[in-house]
């Protein structure tokens, strides 16, 4: 009982009566009341500290939003894996030092998560095992330095990894949409430079290229995925005041599922369906995610700050990645997806430094047949 009294400050009735005059005197005095820190206060202070540190260290943040199993982690991991696999790109990636001191256990855990993703998860992806969903109790930034031989410079990025469950709509509440975590809210409010925001919407939540019966709940899962993005777009509009240098990309992940849908209608190669135009992507968004598309187009930013696109991390069935080395056209089409997102974030970052530049060298002449198609898309849309 003594321990309980210590924790909750429990007193007997006589003790309460005797203590009341002193308590009243304290409450009515001019001395400030003690500040009681809540877990949310701690999260907010961490988010603000990260914002200040990333800006001081000249990192360009990339904030990735999306519901559960939308492909957020696969997006980041496949982008990093591609840099390790494509020697012709002339790029390298290094994990940077911790953003905040590791004397705090929370900061240490966040950096351990970042290290695990950059090293182990990326290598497993290269070996053929896809990234699982992020299940951590707190978001974390993956701080990386990207070197470009074509641009002859190194640019630092910080990719935000988070749990998709945090963005699901709270349909049983009056608020309905999920609120940003206090740390993410404080980061977005306080970061002084431009931020790249990527909003991930999956083409499907079913397992692609599987003999299993399709999930009848897929439309409901897609509806939730769309509402998660609607909520985050609304949150951005409410908390972010310095919007002028931000970039926004609405990205349809798992785009290889598009081929499964199209091949029943027409004779089309996989690599061709991977290189669909923006009009095809927007038509899909209008059919599947009308609210998310409307909210995205309604963002109070200049039109050139908004882009839509598709993404294919690889030919994945559940967490197994099919090798595509024997099919150069498909391999290059998949790399085009990774290349265009890298090009987009690189240009956003270098615009903040001086002038937008390109991360990649010109494509080799011997691959002109496939790259002619790819470059036409890059030149037209990115």
What is shown here, in short?
With 382 residues, the chain is an alpha/beta fold.
- CATH C-level category: Alpha Beta
Terminal CA distance reads: 67 Å
CATH architecture classification: 3-Layer(aba) Sandwich
Strands of the widest sheet, in order across it, are: 2-3-4-1-5-6-7
Number of strands: 9
Number of domains: 1
Determine the fraction of residues in helical runs and give it as a percent range: 40-55%
CATH homolog superfamily: P-loop containing nucleotide triphosphate hydrolases
Low-pLDDT windows of residues: 1-39
Spell out the helices and strands N to C.
HHHEHEHEEHEHEHHHHEEEHH
Biggest sheet: strands, sense, closure?
A: 7 strands, mixed
**What's the rounded overall pLDDT mean?**
84
How much of the sequence lies in strands comes to 5-15%
What is the overall shape?
globular
Description:
- This protein has 382 residues and is of the alpha/beta class.
- It has a single domain, classed as 3-Layer(aba) Sandwich (Rossmann fold), CATH 3.40.50.
- 47% of the residues lie in helices and 14% in strands.
- It has 13 helices and nine strands.
- It has helices at residues 2-8, 13-28, 39-56, 72-85, 105-127, 182-190, 218-239, 257-262, 270-274, 278-288, 290-297, 328-353, 368-381; strands spanning 59-65, 91-95, 140-148, 153-161, 196-202, 247-253, 306-310, 316-317, 320-321.
- The strands form two sheets. A seven-stranded mixed β-sheet has the order 2-3-4-1-5-6-7, with helices on both faces. A two-stranded antiparallel sheet has the order 8-9.
- α3 runs parallel beside α6, α4 (72-85) packs across α12 and α7 (218-239) packs parallel to α11.
- Residues 1-39 have low confidence and may be disordered.
């Amino acid at each position: 009982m003594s321990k309980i009294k210590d924790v909750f400050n429990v007193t007997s009735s006589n003790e309460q009566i005797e203590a009341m005059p002193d308590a009243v005197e304290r409450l009515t005095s001019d001395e400030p009341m003690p500040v009681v820190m809540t877990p949310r206060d701690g999260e907010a202070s961490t988010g603000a500290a990260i914002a200040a540190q990333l800006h001081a260290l000249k990192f360009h943040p990339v904030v990735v939003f999306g519901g559960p199993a939308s492909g957020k982690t696969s997006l980041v991991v496949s982008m990093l894996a591609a840099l390790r696999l494509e020697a012709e790109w002339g790029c390298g990636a290094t994990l940077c030092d911790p953003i905040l001191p590791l004397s705090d256990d929370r900061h240490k855990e966040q950096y351990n998560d970042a290290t695990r993703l950059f090293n182990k998860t990326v290598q497993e992806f290269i070996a053929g095992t896809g990234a699982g969903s992020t299940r951590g109790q707190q978001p974390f930034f993956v701080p990386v330095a990207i070197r470009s031989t074509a641009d002859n410079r190194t640019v630092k990025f910080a990719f935000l990894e988070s749990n998709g469950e945090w963005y699901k709509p709270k349909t049983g509440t009056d608020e309905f949409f999920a609120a940003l975590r206090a740390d993410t809210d404080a980061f977005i409010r306080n970061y002084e430079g431009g931020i790249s925001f990527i909003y991930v919407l999956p083409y499907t939540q079913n397992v692609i290229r599987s003999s299993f019966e399709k999930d009848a709940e897929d439309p409901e899962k897609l509806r939730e995925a769309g509402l998660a993005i609607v909520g985050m777009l609304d949150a951005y509009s409410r908390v972010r005041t310095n919007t002028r240098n931000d970039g926004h990309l609405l990205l349809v992940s798992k785009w290889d599922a598009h081929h499964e849908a199209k091949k029943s209608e027409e004779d089309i190669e996989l690599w061709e369906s991977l290189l669909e135009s923006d009009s095809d992507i927007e038509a899909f968004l209008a059919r599947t995610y009308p609210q998310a598309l409307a909210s995205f187009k309604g963002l109070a930013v200049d039109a050139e700050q908004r882009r839509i696109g598709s993404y294919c991390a690889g030919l994945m069935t559940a967490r197994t990645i099919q090798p595509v080395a024997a099919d150069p056209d498909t391999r290059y089409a998949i790399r085009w997806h990774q290349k265009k997102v890298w090009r987009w974030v690189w240009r956003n970052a270098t615009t903040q430094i001086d002038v937008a530049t390109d991360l990649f060298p010109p494509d080799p002449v011997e691959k002109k047949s496939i790259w002619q198609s790819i470059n036409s898309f890059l030149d037209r849309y990115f």
